[in-house]
Specification:
This protein is α/β, with parallel strands linked by helices and 386 residues long. It has helices at residues 12-23, 39-49, 59-68, 79-87, 105-113, 124-140, 149-158, 183-186, 191-194, 204-212, 214-227, 265-273, 288-291, 305-316, 320-336, 344-354, 364-385; strands at residues 2-7, 28-34, 53-56, 75-78, 94-97, 117-120, 144-146, 166-173, 234-238, 244-250, 255-259.
Length: 386
């Protein structure tokens, strides 16, 4: 029986994870749940899975949980301390890190420091603190298992192969809703249009990131830290069908790819049971004869400059990726609130990066300071644009 704590239990990753737990009650049990403000959903989850610990984003939300579930016998906490408590709860075998944004860094680090395995869906954890996080994982011998479909695919395609045999990693991108939209029209896209992802059902922030291709840029940074390859050995191709989730090219010209129907239950199940595989009979099987055609295109970095900005931040190193991520979070939030147009997202990120002097990412304090600085710079950009 593997005991889980889930950070971000009400998001799409958390909900799918709990669905799998419910399908395999003999394999998994839930120790802790952490979420933001969707109290009614957390109450439903707590009634079904009976965790020992629940953490909400604020004391107000925690109070609402206690009132809505007076019979709950576990502990109810709130704020960042609550997240850390869920991540470090005694007896937890695996922490599913599925919070959105840099908020997942502190609890993920805390879990790794205790030597607890982490299934990582929160890519910003490695974007912001990749060196610190991976050093911590190595020092405590804590497994860091990718949960994103692309990085799960790379893990599977790299399995058992020597590092020196790898020529490059190839991440696939769906291209988002604006794959064929002329650049002039991108200036006028609406929030509603940006949230119409052609393949995946995700939260608002990650869906906008997919529309700008920043999501793929963040995944390049994540792949660098997970697998240890330099940016020059990590490429991106656009694959609209989202059937091939990533590929590895070897020095002899062989290319190994992982294919599956686009359903996050598959990489989540692989992370939960790694290195075993669960039988997911409830999912449709991949039938290539029905798919018919698989396309692969070169990403257009002129129309989608966020991808290039992510590569640039990785080359700059130090605190630059943390600044990139913080600026992006603030600017995407401003776009979703109708404060700035779509193309102001990459323009603002470029401005903030240009004003930043990268420092060594030597500690959590340095990273959090860079994150704070970048958010202030991004907010100033939004204020000027407004």
């Amino acid at each position: 029986m593997k005991r889980l704590s889930i950070l971000g239990s009400t998001g799409s990753i958390g909900v799918t994870t709990l669905d799998l737990v419910g399908r395999f009650p003999d394999r998994f049990a839930v120790v802790g749940l952490a979420a933001g403000s969707r109290v009614e959903r957390v109450i439903e989850q707590a009634r079904l899975f009976r965790p020992e610990l629940v953490a909400l984003g604020s004391e107000e939300a925690a109070r609402e949980f206690r009132q809505g579930f007076p019979g709950f016998r576990g502990e109810v906490l709130s704020g960042p301390e609550g997240l850390v408590a869920v991540a470090t709860a005694p007896g937890v075998d695996l922490v599913v890190s599925a919070l959105v944004g840099a908020a997942g860094l502190m609890p993920t680090l805390a879990a790794l420091q205790r030597g607890t395995a982490v299934a990582l869906a929160n890519k910003e954890v490695l974007v912001v603190g990749g060196d610190l996080v991976t050093r911590t994982a190595r020092a405590s011998n804590a497994p860091l298992i990718p949960l994103d479909s692309e990085h799960s695919a790379l893990l599977q395609a790299l399995d058992g192969q020597p590092r020196e045999a790898v020529r490059r990693l190839i991440l696939t991108a769906s291209g988002g809703p604006f794959l064929h939209t002329p650049k002039a029209e991108l200036a006028h896209v609406t929030v509603e249009q940006a949230l119409r992802h052609p393949t995946w059902k995700m939260g608002s922030k990650i869906t906008v990131d997919s529309a700008t291709l920043m999501n793929k840029g963040l995944e390049v940074i994540e792949a660098h830290w997970l697998f240890g390859f330099p940016p020059g050995q990590i490429d991106v191709v656009v694959h609209p069908q989202s059937i091939v989730h990533s590929l590895v090219e070897y020095v002899d010209g062989s290319v190994l790819a992982q294919l599956a129907v686009p359903d996050m239950a598959i990489p989540i199940a692989f992370a939960l049971s790694y290195p075993e595989r669960l039988s997911l009979d409830h999912l449709p099987r991949l039938r290539l004869e029905e798919v018919g055609r698989l396309e692969f295109l070169t990403p257009d970095v002129e129309r989608f400059p966020c991808l290039g900005l992510a590569y640039e931040s990785l080359r700059l190193g130090g605190t630059a990726p943390a600044v990139l991520n913080a600026a992006n979070e603030e600017l995407v939030s401003a776009f979703l609130a109708g404060q700035i147009p779509f193309l102001a997202i990459p323009a603002g990120i470029e401005r903030v990066l240009a004003r930043h002097s990268p420092q060594l990412a030597s500690s959590l304090e340095v990273l959090l300071a860079a994150d704070h600085w970048a958010r202030e710079e991004a907010r100033n950009f939004v204020h000027v644009r407004a």
